[in-house]
Each structure stands twice: as C-alpha cells, then as structure tokens.
Amino acid sequence: MKYFIKTFGCQMNVSDSERIAGFLEARSFKQAKDIAKADLVIFNTCGVRQSAENRVFGLVHNIRKKEESIKDKANRKIIILTGCLANRKDVQRKLKDKVDLFCEIKDFPNKIKFILTKQVRASTPEPRVSGKTASYLKSIAKNKVSPETQGSIETIEPAHDNNYLCVAPKYTSPTQAFVPVMTGCNNFCAYCVVPYARGREVSRPTEDIISEIDALVKSSYKEITLLGQNVNSYKCDKRSVQVSDLNRKGSNEVLKNNAVQVWRLEPTRKNSEIENLKLIENCKLKIVNSNTLNFPKLLDFLCESYPAIRFKFLTSHPKDFSDELIDVIAKNKNIDREIHLPVQAGSNRILKAMNRPYTQKHYLNLIKKAREKIPGAAFTTDVIVGFPGETEKDFLETVKVFEKVKYNEAYINKYSPRPGTAAWKLGDPVSWDEKKRREKILRQLVSGQSAPEHEHRSGLSAPATPNKIIAILGPTSSGKSDIAIKLARKFNGEIISADSRQIYRGLDIGTGKVPSDSFSPVLGGDVATYSSGQRGQKGNNVFFSEGIPHYMINIVSPRTNFSAAQFKKRADKIIADILQRGKLPIICGGTGFWIKAVVDNVIYPEVKPNWVLRNMLRNKSAKELYNQLKRLDPTRAKTIDKNNPVRLIRAIEICKTLGSVPSPQPLPTGQAGSPDYGRGGKSYPSPPYSGEMSRRNRRDREGTEYAFLQIGIKLPKEKLHQNIKTRLKKRFQTGMIQEVKKLHFKDRISWKRLGSFGLGYNLIPKYLKGEIKTEEELFEKIYQAEKDYAKRQMTWFQKDKRIVWLEKYRNIEKEVSAFLLCSTPL
C-alpha cells in the first residue's frame, strides 16, 4: 500500500508528519510521489488561518470528485485528516462523507488497525509480531521504534504513557532534524486555536529527547531544532541525573534512589547497574539536584553534551523568555544566534486584548538584554495586523517596535478569525484592504533593515575563505531540480532558481516548477511571506519544496519584464545572506546567461528601453527578429531562444545601444577562475580534488572571495528526449492547457505576452484559437520545440570548459564533497 502525506502549517506539523511516515514505513507502507498514486492520503492540517482550511477542503473535494466514476468504494483512496482541524466539529460535518477518519495526531498510532483492515486494493497485512512487540499495535504509548532501525519494528522498555512522540520519524533531511520537546499550550491567546487543537502543555521526558538526539548525532546530523508551541515553558518534574564526575559509590547511591530518573544516551541497551554507571561516567555526567528541569537547563546540557551540533529552538513566548535562557545562549556558541521571539502587536491595549501577558516595554527590554549579553544576536518575529479593535494609533505602536528592534525577518499575518477562540465573537471589523496596507508598511520596514551588526548571528564559525557556491545546470528535463534538492539536504544548502520563466507567478505547470510545501518556516503560521533585510525585496519570497528553501521563484507578475541584470543583483544578495548563515548556496537552472552573470560577475550597463525601436519591432515575426539579431550579434544569436520575441527585441535593443550583448571578460590563464586554473599539473591541497573544478574567484563590493563549482547534467540524447516526452505528457495530464486558459481569460494576460514565454506558452494559444487543430498535433509541436531548446542550451553550456559534466547522482555528490573539502589557494 502506498501513502502520501500533505502537510500544512508549522514545523511541529512537519515533525509530526515525519513520525507518521516513519510509523507507516515500519509496517511496509511505501511513500507515493504524489496524491494520484497513493492508496492512503493523510492531510496533516493547520487551523491557524482560513486559507489553510480552504486548501484542505479543496484537495479533499478534488480527490473524491475524480473518484465519482468508481462504483466500488473499496477501490477508493483512504483519506485521513489529522492535525489541528481533526477535532473541529464543523470540519467533521462538512467532510464526513469524504474523509474516512478524523484522527488527532496523538491517537494516530492507535489507529493502525483501521488502516490495515480497511478494504482497499493491495491492502497490507498486519505485521506478525509477538511478545512485547505485539503490544505496539495495541498501545504505541508503551513501546517505541528505534530511530536507528527505520523500516523494522523494534521495542524498548516502555517508558511513558500517551506519548506518540516515541514513534521513530522518517526524517526528511539527512543533516537537519526537528526534535519536539513538548506539545500543547496553556497560554490561550485570544486569536489562537492551538490550545484547543493541541491540548494543554505536555513536556516530553528528558531521556526520550536525549535518546532521539543521540541517535541523530550518530547518524552525522549537524543541525537540530528543538520544537514546541511554547518551547521555553518546557519542564520535567522529576529529579534528573545530568552529567557528572561522580565516584562509583556516589553514582550507586543515586541509581538506587527510585525517585531519580537516569538519562541514558543508549536507552535500547539493557545494561546492568554497573554498565549504566559506566555509561553515565563515559558521558561525563554531572548531578543537578533540582526538582524541576526547565528549558534553559535542558538546552545547556544538550549544548555541552553535543558541542558539534548547531541547536535552534522554536517558538518562544516573551513571558517565558528568561534571563537564565539568555545566559545559556550567551554561554554556548553552538546555539543559533537568530532568535525567534513573536511580538504579535506593539500596542499594550491590543496585547491585552490578545491575552498576551507582557507589555511593549517588557518585550523591548528582553531584546536589549539579549543583545547586551549575546554577541551577534538577531531577532525574527511573528506579528498580526488588523486584530479586532486595532486602530491606526495601535498599529503605529507596532511600527515603533519594528523600527527599534530592526528584525532580520518577520512573518506578517493578516488577522483571520478562528472559530472557538475568544476573539471569534469580536468579528473582523478591520477591512482587508486596511490589513494589506499595514502588512505592506511592516514588510517595507523589514526590507530596509539590513542590520549589518548581526552578520554573524549564527554563532558558528563563518565558512572558510573562499566562500563556496554550487551551480547545477543543464538542458531542460535533465533532472536538475531533484539533484539540487538532494544536494541541499546532504550539504545544508539552499537553492537559488536560475530559470527565466519560473520567476513568474502563475507559470507553474508549463515551467516545471518544483511542488510547493504548504507550511511556513516557523511555528504558528500557514504559508507566510518571508521578509528579510537580505531577501525581503519586493516580490522576493522564499519558496519551500521538500523542506528546502528556494529563491527566485514566483517573484513577479507575468506582465513584468525581468532582466539578467535584475536577476544578478538579487541573486548576489541572496548568496551573501545564505553564506553568512553558514549554509551552502546552490544555483539551479537552465538559463545559462543568468548563471554566467553570477559566476563571472558580469556588470551590465544600464540600457534603458527604447520605445521607438520597440514599436518598430513589435509587429515583426520571431523569425524576422532572429535574423536581424543574427546580423547584429551572431554570438548571442546562437544561444538565444529564437522563438521568444521579447528576448529577441531586448537583445536587438542592447545591440543597437552597445554594439553587442555584453559578455564577461575572460581571466588570464592560470588565474583563479580561468578555465585552466587547477589544471596543467597544478594540484589542489589535501584532501585531493580530482575533478575539473569550475571556479571563478572574485571580490564583491564587500571584499568577499567566491569560488564556484559548476556541474552540468549530461544525459544520453535518447534518454533526454524520453525525459522531455514523459514530462510533457505529465504536464498535459495535470492541466498545462487549462493553466494557459486561466492566465488569459481570468488573469487577463494577453495572447502576445503569453507567446513571449515560449516552450508551450507560445503554441497553446494557437491551439485554443483553432490554429492548431488537435491536441496530438499540439503535443508534437511542443515536444519538438523543447528538443530544439535543449540543443541550444547545450550549445551555450559546452562553451564553458570549466563545467564538470556528470550524469549519476553519486558522482555528483562525490564531486561536491571534494570541492567543499578542498582548501583552495587564492
């Protein structure tokens, strides 16, 4: 049986989905690539905003609508709805005929018999187990699945009742992991559904937390985020044994005390008392005689025990953000210096109405104390605009907070009334337009607050000079996006799209955009717009796919022209921001001119639009424009899309002004960045680097050295053509023609403008207007156009002898590893 999980909302939901996946795969379920191929579909829902609810309703209705022709209900998909909406009575009423099971996340493991006994095709038999393992299926609370043995059932001593967090997750990243330390919330903010959906605060037992983290460390994880709806209210109410250099007698006395709970870093081992003693002493345990272990103490212990791990935590409440926690962050350099501290509003009156028990003064004092004690501290926040009763005067208090704090990022949400909350009865008196206006003001404030004093907010060592950047390039349908995501997971990277059409909103199916994750990068949100001093320029939103941040996707309207110069300007800022956060920038795309602009630091002269020339050229055919460009600049004509009139007109415009389209000046042979650098007998320092490293060291305006590795994905011609055909079939099946219809008839994008995007967008309008008679003829024409485009792309890329051409992912990963390990002479 195949399953598919669709996750909405916060990182806690993402973590929960990882546990659901781990639970299912331990019982021989297989993950489907998309909903269409799944037998079991699980929606892990978010109830924070109405937009998230609406998407769930839409997806469920779409699934059932497609199944209307299936008479035997046993052959329909099983749909399970879990997460924040699962126990909402109104949601259950609306979807009762379409959803098979409404299940709170904590109850999911106990529903295994429902899933396994449901009459569906290819149903999976319940695993044959005996002894203690059999009790797993009856009560997940009394057993666990080992984090190190995903795919098989292995039990350990029962520890805690009603703890679904004992389920071993299927982590989505091989280097970064979410580890929940608590669930639920006791704060009852007036606008928030979390206490009703998640229940009251429950802190996870410390030995469970350490057990999971220890397994992650052994699996070479580098970054761990501790999660909780209110993470800094964590409390463990038993006396605990922490790290210590006790003599054997002292340790024995501690172990004999039944009231003491021992933190075992390997809880699956059934050790004797003496073995446990050795384990404690080997871990350099020390005693804390305390009746309550709070979050600062837990965090301090973890940082001392795992100094090579970078720790983050989400989300904090200002009322629980203590001086003790500030001191712990200041003390431990492996805690991320970017602190998420939601303010929600700046007005004391609105904070009181929200049931947020702090004042603006208290909040600003926390920021001040943290910055005084923590070098490089930076802050991100959540804020709500348009809460019922928020006046212009109240809003200006929020503006004041933004101006004083200078946030690095802000997740700005327009107030959305939620059923069952205290604020529900207040209605929604602030207009949508007014909310949008306030949101825009705050976003502009964040975009202008670059906060250079917080450049080293990560608290970890900056990447060694030169800063290294990967570029994954190649022809269309070569699999670049999948490879880039795998590399980002492996090497802690973030992806910058270099596709000249994926920047446009609404051009989704036809451009092959990676699917978007429907969750915000912080707790408590739906899909929040990502604003930052480095990344928050107008229209520049972060786009998450498979948990990996992507940039330069969906940033402008299809009506807007966007040049290589604009791409380079934004990409440079994004690269600088990614590097300063200690991550690896990965450029991925097939627009060679754009990639070259960044790699070779091409400085584009300003060429203003020549409207007289444009009016003269606008009525010429693409063929006529191409022939004119060929006469003016034969070099550019060889690589440009000859069926794209917008590109052709712009190239002619530049040629008329400058004489030719500017190209980068080659570096002298042997200089870092030239094609010969690293060859001709010149070897790299240990560890040896065997590949032909694509390098271009340059100094940006701040004096930073960059080194690039360009990897080209080169497939055999027959395989590439088959990939193009397969992907095109999928696009037709998923609504490429309907997408163009919507862009024209609903979004009012002209046929001419659509035609300028080429590769299907220029041919589908002809089909819709009757100029192309059949869908089969349309398919063949687009297929041929994409093959021609792939050929032109390869012509462009193969001129750059620095590109390392590979096909297999394992070879690509090896090449990247060698590049990152290489200490490059400058």
Helical proportion, percent range: 25-40%
Structural class: alpha/beta
**DSSP summary, beta strand count:** 27
Question: Globular, elongated, flat, extended or rod-shaped: what is the shape?
Answer: globular
Order of strands, main sheet, comes to 23-24-20-25-19-26-27
Q: What is the alpha-carbon Rg in Å?
A: 28 Å
In CATH terms, what is the fold-level topology of one domain? Rossmann fold
Level-1 CATH class name of one domain: Alpha Beta
Q: Determine the N-to-C terminus distance.
A: 55 Å
- What count of helical segments does DSSP give? 28
Which band does the percent of strand residues land in? 5-15%
Q: What would you say this structure looks like, in words?
A:
It is a single chain. The chain has 826 residues and is of the alpha/beta class. Among the domains are: 2-156, Methylthiotransferase, N-terminal domain (Rossmann fold), CATH 3.40.50; 466-515 and 557-604 and 662-826, 3-Layer(aba) Sandwich (Rossmann fold), CATH 3.40.50. Helix content is 37%, strand content 14%. A 7-stranded mixed beta sheet has the order 23-24-20-25-19-26-27, with helices on both faces. It is globular and about 80 Å long.
